[in-house]
Amino acid sequence: MSTYSRPELARMRLLCSAAILVSSFPLATLAQEITVLDTIVVEGEEGEVTTQTLSGASVEELEGALIVEQYGNDIGTAVRATAGAFTRSPADSPTVTVNIRGLQSYGRVNTMIDGIPQTFRNISGHGGSYDDQVFLDPGLVVGADIAKGAVAGADGLGALAGAANFRTIGIDDLVDAGETTGGMARLSFGTNGNDVSATLAGAVQSKDGTWGGLAAVSGYNHGPFEDGAGTETSEYYKDEPRTILAKMRYRPSADLEFNLTAQDYQNTFYPTDSSGYIWDVERKSVIADMAYNPGDPLIDMKAKVYWQDMSFNFPTGEGKTSGSYLGRNGTDETFGANLSNRSKLAIAAGDLLLDYGVAYTSNDFDTEESTSGANAAGKLSKSGVFFNAAYAIGDWDFGGGVRYDYYQLDSTIDGEDVTRDDGKLNGNLVARYHLNDAWSVYGSYAETMRAPTVTEMFYSGGSHATSSSSVLTNPDLEAETADTFELGVNFGREGLWAGATLFQSDIENFINYEEDSDGNVRFINTDGNVTMKGIELSAGFDTERFFGSLSLTLADTEQPISNNAGVGMDTYGQLPDDYATLDLGMKLLNGDARVGGRVRYVGESSVATFTSFTDYSGTTVDLASYTLFDLYGSWQVSEGLELYASVENVFDKFYREAGTGLATSGESLFGDGIGGRGRTVELGMTYRF
Length: 689
Hints:
Elements: H1 6-17, E1 60-63, H2 64-69, H3 75-80, E2 85-88, E3 97-100, E4 109-113, E5 116-117, E6 141-148, E7 162-168, H4 171-174, E8 181-190, E9 194-205, E10 211-222, E11 242-253, E12 256-269, E13 279-292, E14 301-313, E15 329-347, E16 350-366, E17 378-393, E18 396-413, E19 416-434, E20 439-450, H5 454-457, E21 480-493, E22 496-508, E23 511-515, E24 521-525, E25 529-542, E26 546-557, E27 578-588, E28 593-602, E29 605-610, E30 618-623, E31 626-636, E32 641-648, E33 680-688
Parallel strand pairs: 4-7
Antiparallel strand pairs: 1-6, 2-3, 4-5, 6-7, 8-9, 8-33, 9-10, 10-11, 11-12, 12-13, 13-14, 14-15, 15-16, 16-17, 17-18, 18-19, 19-20, 20-21, 21-22, 22-25, 23-24, 25-26, 26-27, 27-28, 28-31, 29-30, 31-32, 32-33
């Protein structure tokens, strides 16, 4: 296994992405004139980058080790350091919702764990959210791939604005080439509620690499914390996940590989400020995948089948023994499969690369009617076929493709079964011109579609509803569609890289929770176009002694603000107008030690909140801009031992965090409107054996 520092990864990503065409094939394989300086090798299974863009823009890769060591186990902060990406990460909840270019939730961004779409959402009252809620332990994350715009292959099925895939630790992360065993132990302690985090993982493989296996367990204990003004969350606040991960691999020949993955995530957390109810959640999943590459240029086949069950419950417990929501529960069962193949055909002076396949995924939400709250029961199934082609000639790269996405929704209204379905053919085009070995420019156009969800079409009532209500359903909802244009320029050479992307997405039939023409409030299709546009800038350098990177987003996201924004906690995921992350550091002890500092700027934003339980009206609250400073450092003491430390919010500044919902709005009906986390110190070690 080879591991590169963040600046080195960013440089190689840029140079490779400058040679990636719309069909996601590295063009170094298309024409010998195009040279990629190095192979991308991150902490993860080799060649395991699964989320790829169709727009011509780069796929950002986040290193899992740096999430732990430099970002204090905060996945949300790491994602926000990516230009064009943001998160909704409630201050008192472990969930993460990825926002790309102003769009989030309901599948607008296909957020995955090891390729499984995370569709769970709970709008069953206090602390509920219309957002897709992702639960995962950062101790097991080895990388995250973030694709902005139209997305290739199965990952792009039904996605409107992009995709994010969080990858868990694999056998090759623990066992070096030529070895048969390996393992990792990671332990950290922190202040301000970040009490302890621990991960233990081990793997074995046969001498010839025919078979291998992995087992890992990870978890952390987080308790009450203070914001920058010294205000502390409730003494009952807690977040205590435990995750068990197992993987098996079998290679009967050099051409064929089978993998099996099983994971069980359990957590009991108490978002006392935003919810006031204890949550018990469990995520169980199984993945079986296959790769077959016999060396024939026409065959490079991959297949995957997956199942996941995500459940929640509001139990009694310390600090919570009464309340009308106690006992509410639900399960979201996900099933999916996909099959794809890549073929290479020699044509004229170059190679024509083809990528094609089929994909299916479904999520079936079920709940007891008496405890459903506002959660609507039903099933959304999505299926599709895709075909993309890439070709390079001279200094030009060209690509294009089509995909047909189809969806079906099934639920019950007033005791009658209701089914809705539709489909759409979408196309994409891209062209890239290489000015020289360092500079390239590109332009692209892509169409995408997102199906309405069970939540939107069959919404069953307000937050305090105790049984289903047909008043707020809307079986006539239409799918959202988007036309996205991009123009970009990339530069890369040894030790220096930069890139800029200008994008605009025009969305038709945008779905919003709003008053309908009959005077009832329900999810409706907004009239006219909703436009999301902006510019994304990234740059960095890496020398023998110093390193640094910059990401800057200047956004103008015009998502309509509902008169009922905030009803059900947060129906509104607008990005800040602008945000940036500047990272600068120094290498010491011949590169074995690194120290660095980070500046995080977040511009003005707004958050949705309740105003009245009587009529379920809502409003938005403006949040001021803020700038935070972080410090981090690491020391590779020996081949196996690394020590690390980080300080978040060094100056203990008080701020209202963008995109966190009611817990930080300052005008919440629940709790005291606590601000973002105050100064937090984290000390840890990673030992590999």
